[in-house]
Design a protein that fits this description.
This protein is of the alpha/beta class and 345 residues long. The protein is 49% helix and 15% strand.
Length: 345
Amino acid sequence: MKFYGELLVIIILLVANARILFIKNAKKDSLVMLSPLGFFLAIIQILNWGLDLVTLLTLVLSILVLLSNFHALFRYSERLYIDHYSILMKFWSVLTILLSLLLLAGTIYFKPVEYDSKKLGISENIIRYEGSFRSGFEEASNIKAANLFLSEFKPAGNQNRLEKQVILFIPDKRGDTYYYKPYLQHLAREGFIVLSADFFCSDCRWLHSIGDLKIVRRTAMVIDYLLKPQRFMMQKEFYTYNILQELAAMNKLIAQRYGEDTKIFIVTDQMATVAAQDFMSKNQERIIDIYDLASIPEYKTSGFGVIAQTDGILAMMMKVPRDKDGFYTKYMVMQTKKAIFNSKK
């Protein structure tokens, strides 16, 4: 959905300024209203999916289109007819048309690999919660802002491979659930209930800056790691403390949602492993075992998710080839599946 939203915004911006090529006679310039619409939709994209390179460039482009159409918007609001455009307007229009085409081509080239959950035979559900680690969490109503997003993937119908057991995935904060989604979908396809949670609570800060905001945290964490990897890795103890809070909260929510006797198999990816081990040592009656995706040699983007499918730009920066067919993602699922059944022996 993120990809198609980006395409929609870029095409709207392209049409908004390409209209100067087609107006031959005096008329009301109603297509100018596409410029504020494109800007509004670019903001919606960032609020829904967060700030990354593509959404940022789309926002910048929408601002350029909006500014270049300022006078045309004023004239349209006054119900004036347009019979020609100024040279400056034509210059900005040609520039933004070229930028739109470049951004459109880049967006298509780096298109993420997305799977239809229904075609995979699974159901996907996002449960929104509000609260804090101090007071606990409860489901948020549609009119309230949420700070915990629980993603649930499970087989359609009653095809669960293991009864009274769920797989709790703890995403690295350089990834978030979205960037692991193909892996989570295929794991659920194997007959497991898979849960992944993204917390954005005021009482659990990661960067102690504006970077803790939901829309920028993932990008801020990636930049922080790429610029200063040694300093980032030296903060493992701090990250462990935060993730322990998340694990404790998820333990309670799983008990509420699936029953007190539900067992948990934890899957981590680098950042959360120490916290999961510590949590398991104190909750052995509930935690079956732990599996760290970073232990898979073929998984070359540990800590970032399956970006060979979900973030082609970052994958290119890390010199990791695209995984269009999902070969490595499915291999990771196979290894996880082995670990789950070996834990029962």
